[in-house]
Amino acid sequence: MKDEAIDEQEDRADAMFRALADRTRRDILRRVLTGEHSVSALAADYDMSFAAVQKHVAVLERAGLLTKRRHGREQLAHGEVEAVRSVASMLTELEGLWRGRIARIDELIALDPLDPIDPTPPPHPKEKP
Amino acid sequence: MKDEAIDEQEDRADAMFRALADRTRRDILRRVLTGEHSVSALAADYDMSFAAVQKHVAVLERAGLLTKRRHGREQLAHGEVEAVRSVASMLTELEGLWRGRIARIDELIALDPLDPIDPTPPPHPKEKP
DNA sequence: TTGACATACAACCGAATGGTTGTATGTTGT
DNA sequence: ACAACATACAACCATTCGGTTGTATGTCAA
Questions:
Q1: Which helix (H) or strand (E) holds B116?
Q2: pLDDT value at position A112?
Q3: Which of A84, A20, A99 is nearest to B30 (CA)?
Q4: How far apart are CA A97 and CA A105, in angstroms?
Q5: Over chain B, what is the mean pLDDT?
Q6: Residue B81 to residue B87: CA distance in whole angstroms
Q7: pLDDT at res. A121
Q8: What are phi and psi of B4, to 5 degrees?
Q9: Averaged pLDDT for residues B26-48
Q10: Contact status, residue B115 vs residue B108, Cβ threshold 8 Å
Q11: Domains identified in chain A and CATH numbers
């Protein structure tokens, strides 16, 4: 994979995690995942200005977690479940790395059955006291 | 559940998502999930000061995504896979809301069989191979 | 056409973030 | 005891963030 593509992927990840790192936005996302809501319908339930909520919606939209559809003078927002899944899969990947650590330890033990100690992988030189 | 408990939960979610919303921290988390690393070992691989990396590690630690263990003069950091899983489960919950939306639409149709619409696809016909 | 509504966006402000350098404290090896 | 190392933390700075108010544009209804 090309480096710029990796950067893009990381940019997307930044945007999505950042968008999720605010409870108002998580709440909005919950609501638009259960069904379409206009921006003002969403804004009605929060103790802040319409503009503030509109900006939150824009953040979610830029992160790809939500899209909008025009309906008359309203913009109906709905959650993008595929984007949510893609975030979830990043975390699954992290879990996979952890699982791989176990496998690596097993491998080490298998390769050198004489060494009975130290589950720590060897980035650091180990001293024998 | 008590309101303060909900707030605490949301505070934790804020901290975890925010901690994940930085590519350097995600990279550090990947590394400490595959095995223990001292803070300076981690810092060696990034083009920023040691103090900056140390702060990133502190952010991950405050979010509960990483814990440290003293070993001599070093602090060995390792990833907390349970915390990663808890974030993943929040996203799974969001997905569940979306799935519930379909059920709700079905229910409406059942109540009013005259309504001919619903372009919404069923849960997901095809998964990536 | 006009007025009310829905949305978008700019300008501004205080607080938080991500980086820097510098300093303090504990640990180790000689 | 001491020099070098590993870590922590404070102070500072530029930028971003989350909120505000105000203004502009588009759409509907009468």
A1: none
A2: 60
A3: A99
A4: 13
A5: 87
A6: 10
A7: 43
A8: -65, -35
A9: 97
A10: yes
A11: 3-80 (1.10.10.10)
**Contact residues, chain A, for B94 at CB < 8 Å:** 29-30, 33, 79, 81, 84
Interface-testing mutation among B20, B30, B68, with chain A (most A C-beta atoms within 10 A): B20
Three-state SS for chain A is: CCHHHHHHHHHHHHHHHHHHCCHHHHHHHHHHHHCCEEHHHHHCCCCCCHHHHHHHHHHHHHCCCEEEEEECCEEEEEECHHHHHHHHHHHHHHHHHHHHHHHHHHHHHHHCCCCCCCCCCCCCCCCCC
Q: What is the pTM of this model?
A: 0.85
- Is there a contact between B10 and B50 (Cβ–Cβ < 8 Å)? no
Q: Closest residue of B to A28, CA-based?
A: B94
Closest CA to the C1' of D16: that residue is: A18
Are A14 and B23 inside 8 Å of each other by CB?
yes
Task: Give the position of tokens 């309101």.
Answer: B3
The dihedral sign for the CA sequence A24, A22, B102, B6: negative
User: What pLDDT, on a 0 to 100 scale, did the predictor assign at position A129?
Assistant: 30
CB contact under 8 A, B18 and A14: no
* Distance from C-alpha of B102 to C-alpha of A36, rounded to nearest angstrom: 12
CB pairs under 8 A between A and B: 103
- The verdict on a CB contact (< 8 Å) between B94 and A84 is yes
Measured CA B84 to C1' C12 distance, in angstroms = 38
Q: What amino acid is encoded at A47 in this protein?
A: D
Give phi and psi for A82, each to the nearest 5. -65, -40
